[in-house]
Amino acid sequence: MSLELLANCLIDKSHLHECLDVSAILANIIITLLTSGELVISTETSGTRQSESLHERALRVLPAGISYKIRYMEPYPFYVDSALGSKVFDVEGRKYSDYWCTHFSMILGHAHPKVKTAMAEQIEKGWNYGLSHELEVRHAELVNRCMPSVEMIRYTNSGSEGNMYAVRLARTCTKRTLIAKFEGGWHGGYDALHCAVKPPFNAPSSGGLDKHAMKDTLTLPYNDLEETRRTIRRRRLACIIVEPVLGGGGMIPAERDFLAGLRELCDENGALLIFDEVITGFRLGMGGGQEYFGVKPDLTVLGKIIGGGLPIGAVGGRRDLMEHMDHTKYSSNEYCFQGGTGAANILTLIAGEATIQTLMHEPVHECVNKLGSRLFSQLNSSIDRSRSHARITGVGSLFGIHLTKQKSVRNIAGWSSEQQERSKRLFRFLLKNEILLLAIDLPHGAISYAHSEDEVDAFASRVEEYLKTET
Ligand SMILES: Cc1ncc(COP(=O)(O)O)c(C=O)c1O
Q1: pLDDT per position as a tens digit, 418-464
Q2: What's the CA gap between 135 and 138, in Å, rounded?
Q3: I want to staple 313 with a disulfide (CB 3.0 to 4.6 A). Which of 116, 159, 288, 380 is the partner?
Q4: What SS3 string covers 171-182?
């Protein structure tokens, strides 16, 4: 902040608080000294001392100084002060063009006025009752109207929890244990799904995982129907869980035939098909990935956008399956438990409802998808012009930049250490230029309604600038 700005703020504050004397006098002194040249203040804003010292404090109380591994940045993360529209502002006053979008949740951009107003009104009436309320009914009806396969729904605190309950429900309904997921698929930290997230796929993704949970999870190659068919042949599966777009794998879309083939395989096998639409739900259109690809799952897991960016998850789907969560209809091992203190909390649902209503009534998807196409074509031209080894993946407003020599990217089996190193350099270069992607070793992102064409163009030209330095 410049000194003049500071002085003006002081005047403003004094006006607001009707306490003119001290701050106005101080402001006047500063302005006088500044104009006379007796006071010289460094206008250096590129330092990151506040973030550095916050990180030093963080290292003492938070493992690695962070609250989530993918938020790790070298040598330390920037610390956010506020977020508005397509930007996040750090404690140093830097302004980042944000394609991280709260882990892809903020489709409308940060602090959208309609969501903010809805939340402010709700806060006056309390923010988590831990009891039944009208909004959970309204929100569920809204989701059902947009995504008809979700005949019934239960809300959870996170996408991870949503996936955990979806698997539990599939096991309850099929009375089978074995499940299958795809390599590169990220479904959250639940033991049974926390495997084969990044290559090498046979290495454990974390310590402390339940061995029994892991041995009952088959991992399959994404977008490879034949291999999937071979692997699950003669196995009695409770479910196959799949993301319509491999998010953590760098926004790699499923091929339509692959998803349609999974539907058939599940039907032949007697397994349930679960779509993890935590990212794609309400992102690829009101009906999510299932509408976009035209394939209907038995169960759907949602999160992110349905809570307007506040913590949320949900599991929904066929009535006959969801009813196994009804303790008045089922008991003992036919009943599937779900619940929690924050389940269907009203503040999250009000933010989610305002977000979904805005998606319904404003051309949000049209706008973000148009920006997405613009970005894809510019990034592809940048790659051509710079003769760089890179591939762009994505769909709609979701995109991934794969710094790889592979001709096409259909899954992340080829994610090499060279790609990771190049990705880190690109990530750092963009960050230095105040452009934020997620994450450091596999840059990908999402476009929000608050982004502009100019912003997207500037992003693409920065990528080109970087690629030219590489070649
Ligand atoms: C596809 C997918 N599923 C599940 C999750 C887990 O959701 P949460 O972080 O809310 O637990 C994520 C999180 O990024 C995700 O991208």
Answers
A1: 999 999 999 999 999 999 999 899 999 999 999 999 999 999 999 99
A2: 5
A3: 159
A4: HHHHCCCCEEEE
Query: DSSP character for 148?
Result: T
Are 214 and 191 contacting, i.e. CB atoms less than 8 angstroms apart? Answer: yes
Handedness of CA 61, 63, 64, 70 (dihedral sign): negative
Task: Give the Å distance between the CA of 409 and the centre of ligand 1.
Answer: 22
Q: Which DSSP category does 70 fall into?
A: G
Nearest-angstrom CA–CA distance, 349 and 310: 9
pLDDT tens by residue, 19-48 = 345 445 544 554 444 434 344 333 333 578
Atom of ligand 1 nearest to the CA of 160: 11
Q: For 52-109+363-470, which CATH superfamily applies?
A: Aspartate Aminotransferase, domain 1 (3.90.1150.10)
Q: Which two tokens stand for residue 138?
A: 């309204």
Q: Which atom number of ligand 1 is nearest to the Cα of residue 158?
A: 10
State which H helix or E strand residue 398 sits in. strand 398-402
Q: Is residue 180 a contact partner of residue 193, using CB atoms and an 8 Å limit?
A: no
Q: Which amino acid is at 185?
A: G
List the beta strands (DSSP E) in 190-257: 217-220, 239-242, 245-246, 252-253
Measured in residues, the chain has a length of 471
Helix, strand or coil, per DSSP, at residue 270: coil
At 471, the amino acid letter reads T
Tokens of residue 261, six digits: 């083939």
Q: What is the CATH number of domain 113-361?
A: 3.40.640.10
The Cα 272–Cα 389 span in angstroms is: 39
| pTM confidence score | 0.90
Please give the structure tokens belonging to residue 150.
């979700």
